[in-house]
Structure formats: C-alpha cells, structure tokens
Amino acid sequence: MAEIQLRNLAHAYRPNPQGPQDFALKRLxxxxxSGGAYALLGPSGxxxxxxxNIISGLVTPSQGQVxxxxxDVTHLPTEKRSIAQVFQFPVIYDTMTVxxxxxxxxxxxxxxxxxxxxxxxxxxxxxxxxxxxxxxARGLTADAKQKISLGRGLVRHDVNAILFDEPLTVIDxxxxxxxxxxxxxxxxxFDFTMIYVTHDQTEAxxxxxxxxVMYEGEVVQMGTPEELFxxxxxxxxxxxxxxxxxxxxPAKVDGAEALVAGQRLALPRVYRDxxxxxxxxxxxxxxxxxxxxxxxxTARVERVSDIGRYKVAKLDLGGLxxxxxxxEDARLDGDETRIAFDPARLHLYLDGRIASGEGR
Length: 360
Ligand code: ATP
What we know:
The protein is α+β, with helices and mostly antiparallel strands. The protein folds into two domains: 237 residues, Rossmann fold; 113 residues, CATH 2.40.50.140. It has eight helices and 22 strands. The chain has a six-stranded mixed β-sheet with strand order 6-7-8-3-9-10, with helices on both faces. A five-stranded antiparallel β-sheet has the order 15-19-16-17-18, with no helix packed on it. A four-stranded antiparallel β-sheet has the order 2-1-4-5, covered by helices on one side. Strand 9 and strand 10 form a beta hairpin. Helix 2 crosses helix 3 and helix 2 packs parallel to helix 4. The structure holds adenosine-5'-triphosphate. The site of adenosine-5'-triphosphate (ATP) has 11 residues, from helix 1.
C-alpha cells in the first residue's frame, strides 16, 4: 500500500480553461495516508469520479502531480500503477466462472497456482461467494455480480490502493449494510489504502476514518465523522451531513453580537474587521438548538414531528426557517417559543467558510 500525494492538482476537461467555472477539479493539495480508509463524499457533479480517475490514471490532470510513495506517476498508464478499481456497475467476464473471474487479476500478476487458489477461496469466503465459485457469472444476480467485482478488487494484496466508485449502488439495501461492514473489517485486517466515492452520507460515515467532502470541484473539508458534525468548515458540509442539516442563518455581526432576523444574540466569540461585502451567516445544528427556554430569541412553532426517539420542531425565526431536535418528551405549548443556541456549537461563516474569531 502506498501513500498517495496530490500536488497542486487541477483538472479542466475543456482545453484553454478561462476561469474557475471551467475546472471540474479546482486546485487541490492532498495526501492520502498509506493504509487509510477514506470516503470521498459530495453531490452529483462535484468532481469525485474525476479525482478518482486521476489517481487511477484513467484521466491525466491538466495541472499538477500525482505521487505514489514520493514517485511521480502523473503520466504513468493505469496498468502500471498497480491500483484496483471497483466501479458502480459490475466489470466481470460473463463467460468465466466466479473462481476464474476472481483469479484473473492474480494470473495477470503471475502468482503461483497454489497461492491463486488460496486467495480466491479466501476472497470468496469473505464475500459469501464460496457456493458459487464453480458457476458461470452470466446466470448470477446483479448483487452477486457486483460482489465478484468487489472480490476482483480485494483479491490482490500487492496494490497501491483500492478505489471504489459508488460500488454498492446496484446492491440490495439489506446486503449493502452487510458489505459495507465487511469492507471495513477487511480494511482493518489488511491495512489497504481505500478511497470510497459516494454521495450517501451514511455510507461515507460508516465506512471511513476520514471523510473528504467535495463541493463544486473543491475539497471543502477533510475530517473524522465527529469533526464534520461538530465543526463543519463550510456551510455546505453542515447542510449535507446531518438530518436535518445545519441551520444557516443570515446575520449582521459586530464584535461579539449578532443581529439575526431583527433579534440580538450574544456570540461566544468576538469577530472583528469582517470583510466588507462578505456573506455573513451563523450555523447551528438542530441538535444544539434548545426550545422552550426561559430567555432567548423568540420563534414561532410551525410544526413538531415525532420521529420516534426524538422530535423535530420546525420553527420560524422572523421569517427564517429553523429546525430544532428536541428530546422525545419535550412539549412546546402555544404558537411561540423561546430558543437558545449551545454557544460551543454556534459557528460564524464568511462566504460559506468558517471564521474562527477570538476568545472573549
Ligand atoms: P457523479 O456522482 O454524478 O458521478 P461526480 O461528483 O463523480 O458526479 P464528475 O463525474 O467527476 O462528478 O464530474 C465533475 C464535472 O465534470 C461535471 O460537471 C461533469 O459534467 C464534468 N465531466 C465529467 N466527465 C467529463 C468528461 N469526460 N468530459 C467533459 N466533462 C466531464
């Protein structure tokens, strides 16, 4: 397994890009630690596949370098990079048996017969494919075919990294959970460098130690699931991760005081000399909004939904929509309520990016 370094990388599919809007991938410096389990998370079109294909060599970046353990591989073709890639749809040989499909990458690598057999059996056992080893792939279900694809990615131990591009899309929801857990266990056991592309936050958060969030061709945050939850570096991260996502409230801020929907709010930190013309917003996750308190901002209660273990209150703060997650036994009497924000979890954003401010 290798450490993968992206240096000053950027990519535009069109020749002669004129501005940032022409780049599918904006400038990026990033290191993927050897043996790390990463998820690349973001909405459709944000550049995840482009980035993955640059690492595997399917796409040559228009700018910058890709290094494997310090060695420049930017212009090396895919087959020379020793990368396993698993795609959204099965890439297998229909006329071969399951065993032959799994053995294929090992035969290509020239491994001895006995070792090939052992690896094929081990991989099949991990993916519950043992009973199908002798069957032709053609007649199998879509789930089983995709498991063979996964197996072909996992069977080699000499690869620099395994790249997964939304590999569980065609898999039945029940099996998805199981496979994700198996991938995680495999990672622990073999210390593979794994990069897993998905637009599904649950998939990203359960699979990865580090989640890399992309938005409009940029990496906007990399962190553990906890870090993304507690301190979203960008309003997009706050909105994309969590259910419901972070509340983002336009505000006017002066020092340690904010004006939100015409109401004054004391801030936990001091923000001085904010750039003129910047979009100023406060971010607070619904989990950290308290409702029904004695003192605080006044909001109108629109609706309270009981989700089972907690309630979600939809509030109106002077025309701004706001969600609050409340304990199961919470009651909001009347149309109006007072709300408070946990100061440790209240963040200020300038043009979408978190500002740190100073201690009071
Ligand atoms: P999805 O989840 O839908 O696959 P993604 O995050 O993987 O999306 P990319 O496929 O990397 O995003 O696409 C990033 C941008 O680059 C998009 O605007 C897309 O239209 C564009 N793009 C992708 N591939 C090509 C290509 N071969 N030629 C031109 N533009 C492309």
